Amino acid sequence: MRINQLPDRDIHRFFQCVLQLDNMDECYAFFDDLMTLKEMKVFITRFTVAEMLLEGKTYQEIREVTQASTAIISRVKRSIEEGNDSYKILLDRVKKYNEE
Length: 100
Description:
Trp Operon Repressor, Chain A; 6 helices; 0% strand; 100 residues; mainly alpha
């Protein structure tokens, strides 16, 4: 994992805090305080790109919807192919939650 290159104590503490968020309002408030709008847009765009790639969308379709560069789309695709399956796991959980 690339994230292992960060200081253990710092990253562990950060994730402990994220896991303490109880609801959507707390998520909105925390991430609003944490990031600039530009940073948030980058994260949301990458997540949307991952979702569209997992749905089988083409680079062109993804670019039209997200305005993401082909470099960003390629990086996300590589993460999906070589990463930890986190995009798929989370999207499957949200889909299951929304179906209940």
